[in-house]
Design brief:
The chain is an alpha+beta fold. Helix content is 35%, strand content 21%. Among the domains are: 122 residues, Uridine Diphospho-n-acetylenolpyruvylglucosamine Reductase, domain 3, CATH 3.30.465; 99 residues, Alpha-Beta Plaits. It has 18 helices and 18 strands. The chain has a seven-stranded antiparallel beta sheet with strand order 15-12-14-13-17-18-16, with helices on both faces. The chain has a five-stranded antiparallel beta sheet with strand order 5-6-10-8-9. Helix 3 packs antiparallel against helix 16 and helix 15 runs antiparallel to helix 16. The longest helix is centred in the C-terminal third of the chain and has 18 residues.
C-alpha cells in the first residue's frame, strides 16, 4: 500500500480526526532531540525518514483497531507519547506510521488507601505531579524532561528521575499496566504490591521502547510529599575519583538521600555557577521524607564526608540546581548551540563501583585525541546504587554550519569512544535514555549471550516485525 492508500484506509477505520498526513504534523511528531538532529534542524534541513501519517487514538480500543490494520498489512509503526526522545527512538521508518498516544490522557484512578494513581499513556508527567502535589503526594519521578514527558514514554524508555536514589527508576514505580500487542490484543497486568506467579510480565514492556507493544495505561506508586522537611547540602570535592569513592561510602553505608549528584570540575564551572573552589567537583545532596528521617540521613552523610577532601558549601548550590534543573526543555528548539556552530548533547552509562572511575577517566582522556573538533567533554554521576553508579557525559564539538550533513559523523565518533571504553571495562552503555536507534550497533556486545532471547520474545509478540524497527534489535533478516 502506498502512503495515500494507508492514510485513506485509516481514516475510514478510525475517522478523519484520528489520522493526519499533514507534513507539519508528521515532522513535529517524529522530531527527535539527539544532538546532530538539532544541529540539522538549526540549518533548516530535515534528514530524518518521513512517515506516511500520524494516527492518534483516544482509547486502547482505537489503538487495537489501528494495530490490527498495521499487522494485517505489515505496515511499520512507531509508537510514541510525549516528545523528549534523544535517541532517534521515535523517528519513523520511511513510509511507515507514527502511533501517537498523546491524546490518550487523563487520570483514571487516584487511590490514597493503596497508594497508587492510574493514568493513561498520554498524560503529561508535569500535570500528574501537579495533581498529586495539591493532594499531598508525589510520584517521586523527576526526569530532566519532566515538562515534556508523558507516562507511556517514561515506561517505554525505562526512565529514571533525579530523586531516584530514594524512589527508584520507573521500573520500581509501576504497579500495573495496560498494553496493546501487534495483533491488536489488549492485555492488562493487574495492580498488586508484589506477586509470585511467574516472571514479572510488566518488565516485558518497561524499557521495550515500543518494540513489543503499545503501552496505553499505567498505575504508579505514590508517596507522601513533604519538601518542606528536606535536608540539603553541597560540598566541594577534590577529584572525581575521590568523589565517587565518597558516593560509594554514602550508598553502601545504608543512607538513601533522594539526590546524590557529583559534577566534575568542568560542569561545576560551566553549569553550576562556579560555586566550588577552582578545580573542585561539586557534590549536591538532598534528603527528604519525615523530618526525623531527613535529618538523620543528613547527619550520617556529614560524618562520612569528613573522611574525604571536601569543603562545605551550604545550600546555595543545591538551590541553584533545583531552580535550573529543567531549563534545557525550554531551549531545545531555539538552536542555541547551532548558532555557535556547535553540536552538544549527553550520553549516560553505568558501571560497578570498581569500574566507574576508570571509565570516566578513559573517556575524558581519549576523547580529545580522537575527536579533532571537540570543544568539551565532562560528566557527572546522578544515580547511585549499592552496586555502582552512572556517569552522564556531557559534550560539545564544533561543526560547519554550511555542512549540516556532516554533524552525524562527528556526533557518532564521540559516541563511539564512550561506547567502546564503557564496554571494554564491563559497564552498560545506556543508563536511562534507552537504546533508540543510535546505540543499536552496540547491543550485541552489551547483551552478550542473552541477546538472542530478545529476538525470541520479539518473534513471539510481533511476528510480522511491525513495531519500531532498528531500535534495540539489529536487523538480522
Amino acid at each position: 500500500m502506498n502512503n495515500e492508500q494507508i492514510t485513506a484506509e485509516l481514516k475510514k477505520l478510525l475517522g478523519n480526526d484520528r489520522v493526519s498526513d499533514d507534513e507539519k504534523v508528521i515532522l513535529e511528531c517524529s522530531k527527535d532531540y539527539i544532538g546532530f538532529r538539532i544541529f540539522e534542524r538549526g540549518a533548516g534541513k530535515h534528514f530524518a525518514p518521513k512517515a506516511a501519517c500520524v494516527v492518534s487514538p483516544r482509547s486502547a480500543e482505537e489503538a487495537s483497531a489501528a494495530l490490527r490494520f498495521f499487522n494485517a498489512n505489515k505496515i511499520d509503526v512507531v509508537p510514541k507519547t510525549g516528545g523528549s526522545s534523544v535517541t532517534l527512538g521515535v523517528e519513523p521508518i520511511e513510509g511507515g506510521v507514527i502511533l501517537d498516544g498523546s491524546a490518550m490522557n487523563g487520570i483514571v484512578d487516584f487511590n490514597e488507601t493503596d497508594m497508587w494513581v492510574t493514568a493513561r499513556a498520554g498524560t503529561p508527567l508535569e500535570y500528574l505531579e501537579n495533581y498529586l502535589n495539591k493532594r499531598g503526594y508525589t510520584t517521586g519521578h523527576f526526569p530532566q524532561s519532566l515538562p515534556m514527558a508523558h507516562v507511556g514514554g517514561l515506561l517505554a524508555t525505562r526512565s529514571i528521575g533525579q530523586f531516584s536514589t530514594l524512589y527508584g527508576g520507573i521500573e520500581d514505580l509501576v504497579v500495573g499496566l495496560e498494553a496493546v500487542l501487534a495483533d491488536g490484543e489488549i492485555i492488562k497486568i493487574k495492580n498488586s504490591p508484589r506477586r509470585s506467579v511467574g516472571p514479572d510480565l510488566r518488565q516485558i514492556f518497561i524499557g521495550s521502547e515500543g518494540t513489543l507493544g503499545f503501552i496505553t495505561e499505567a498505575t504508579l506508586k505514590i508517596f507522601r510529599y513533604s519538601p518542606e522537611t528536606r535536608w540539603m547540602r553541597a560540598y566541594g570535592v577534590k577529584g572525581m575519583r575521590n568523589g565517587l569513592a565518597a558516593l560509594r561510602e554514602i550508598t553502601v553505608g545504608g543512607y538513601r538521600p533522594a539526590v546524590v549528584r557529583l559534577h566534575d570540575p568542568t560542569e561545576t564551572e560551566r553549569d553550576l555557577g562556579n560555586l566550588a573552589p577552582e578545580g573542585y567537583c561539586i557534590l549536591i545532596l538532598i534528603a527528604e521524607g519525615p523530618s526525623a528521617v531527613a535529618a538523620a540521613i543528613g547527619k550520617g552523610v556529614e560524618e562520612i564526608l569528613k573522611n574525604y577532601e571536601t569543603v562545605d558549601l551550604g545550600e546555595k548550590p543545591v538551590l541553584h540546581w533545583l531552580e535550573h534543573r529543567n531549563d534545557v526543555c525550554a531551549t531545545l528548539d531555539k538552536y542555541k548551540y547551532y548558532k555557535l556552530g556547535a553540536i552538544a548533547d549527553t550520553c549516560e552509562i553505568s558501571a560497578p563501583w570498581s569500574k566507574i572511575a576508570d571509565i570516566y577517566e578513559a573517556v575524558t582522556e581519549r576523547m580529545p585525541r580522537e575527536v579533532e573538533s571537540l570543544a568539551s567533554i565532562a560528566g557527572h554521576s546522578s544515580h547511585s546504587y549499592v552496586q555502582g553508579t552512572n556517569i552522564y557525559f556531557t559534550f560539545g564539538a564544533m561543526a560547519d554550519k554550511d555542512k549540516p550533513e556532516c554533524a552525524r559523523e562527528i556526533y557518532m565518533n564521540i559516541i563511539r569512544v564512550i561506547m567502546e571504553e564503557t564496554l571494554a571495562r564491563g559497564g552498560s552503555i545506556a543508563h536511562h535514555h534507552g537504546s533508540g536507534k543510535y546505540r543499536t550497533r552496540w547491543m550485541p556486545e552489551e547483551h552478550g549471550s542473552s541477546y538472542g532471547l530478545l529476538y525470541r520474545i520479539k518473534r513471539a509478540l510481533d511476528p510480522n516485525g511491525i513495531f519500531n524497527k532498528g531500535v534495540i534489535l539489529a536487523d538480522k533478516e
